[in-house]
Design goal:
single chain; alpha/beta; Rossmann fold; 12 helices; 5 strands
Length: 356
């Protein structure tokens, strides 16, 4: 459907009586508005097929790999369908993902399965979005203006509508592949903007704090101070009995974890509630050390900056720990944030691929 077609539907039929027609006395405006909205969805076909190709491929790869290595499955980053069970859920997601991907690239007889798959997944993600909104209203979580589940529910619904109204995929597959690549690049950004800014603080076995720069004189950098301060506030709320402070060498003789310990002590956390992990040289080391310290199945509050949390959530879950992310409350703007965000986009996909 062309832009002119859509515009004509918005304008409605030509006026034949010479009088101005208004919404109030036009009984067909709802139908034409609906048709126009559907037309916009159909006109966005290449972008929606690209999204379907990305999500279908991502869901299928995770589900199939998860059947062999359950810890690899990262579908929990975008959908919560745990009531279906491990193996059953993976089979369903693999089939649904394959159906959407097949429709996206124009394979024959893939239209109806794709409609069913997209509509079903939209319903599940919408139910999860409603649950998150309810928890937010109850104060159990603190989420941003829109949740990841709601974004995916809307996109999946659009895919279902596009497949139903425009079953023939474009002959030009290059735009679809380009849109799929764009969706893959945008996915970690979307995680940072939603999951990374949501506070899931609740009772846990420990609070794990990721290190950042400590200056040569032992002072914590702004990022390090914000992380430790946020973690100490959670400790004072009684959410966990101990802090695990993880980091690497500082700029001088004072280790990052020592700088963190001093700050935590000054904020009222007693020594017996603090454990140091001086071997937390990077995110992977921190997660591995925390898993060894706390044991499988432990519940942890993970404190770092929002752009860092999606990758940490993935890593902790793959290590068998139940992670609840808590973004550090910034005391001032960090000028290098755009650089950190760009780096995390690549790091997220690297860790996903390597199974970190």
């Amino acid at each position: 459907m062309s832009y002119d077609d859509i515009a004509r539907r918005f304008r409605g039929r030509p006026r034949g009586d010479g009088h101005a027609r208004t919404v109030a006395n036009d009984p067909g405006w709802r139908r034409r508005s609906y048709d126009a909205l559907v037309g916009i969805v159909v006109a966005s076909g290449a972008a929606l097929r690209g999204f379907a190709l990305f999500l279908g491929g991502f869901a299928s790869v995770n589900a199939l790999a998860g059947l062999a290595v359950p810890a690899f499955d990262a579908n929990g980053t975008w959908i919560d369908a745990r009531p279906l069970g491990g193996a059953a859920l993976r089979v369903v997601l693999a089939a649904a993902g394959a159906a959407m991907a097949a429709w996206a690239v124009g394979l024959p007889r893939a239209r109806v399965p794709a409609i069913c798959a997209a509509a079903s997944l939209a319903a599940v993600t919408l139910a999860d979005a409603v649950r998150v909104i309810r928890l937010d209203l109850e104060g159990a979580v603190d989420t941003p203006w829109i949740s990841l589940s709601l974004v995916f529910a809307a996109l999946l619904a659009c895919v279902a509508v596009a497949a139903a109204r425009d079953g023939n995929a474009s002959r030009a597959r290059l735009p679809v592949v380009a849109w799929a690549a764009a969706a893959a690049l945008a996915f970690p950004l979307l995680l940072m903007a939603t999951t990374g800014t949501s506070r899931y603080a609740r009772r846990a076995d420990a609070i794990v704090v990721l290190g950042a720069r400590a200056y040569a004189d032992g002072r914590p950098s702004t990022s390090l101070r914000d992380r430790v301060t946020t973690a100490c506030a959670a400790w004072h709320e009684g959410l966990a009995p101990r802090l695990v402070l993880s980091g690497g060498p500082g700029d001088g003789d004072v280790h990052e974890t020592e700088s963190m310990r001093r700050l935590a002590a000054s904020l009222g956390v007693p020594p017996d509630a603090i454990e140091l992990d001086p071997a937390g040289l990077d995110s992977r080391s921190t997660v591995a050390n925390a898993a060894a310290l706390l044991g499988p199945g432990a519940r942890v509050l993970v404190v770092s900056h929002g752009w860092h949390l999606p990758r940490l959530d993935l890593a902790f879950e793959r290590r068998g720990l139940r992670a609840y992310t808590v973004p550090a409350v910034p005391s001032e703007r960090v000028t290098k944030t755009p650089l950190f965000v760009a780096r995390e986009c690549l790091a997220w996909w690297k860790d996903w691929l390597l199974g970190a």
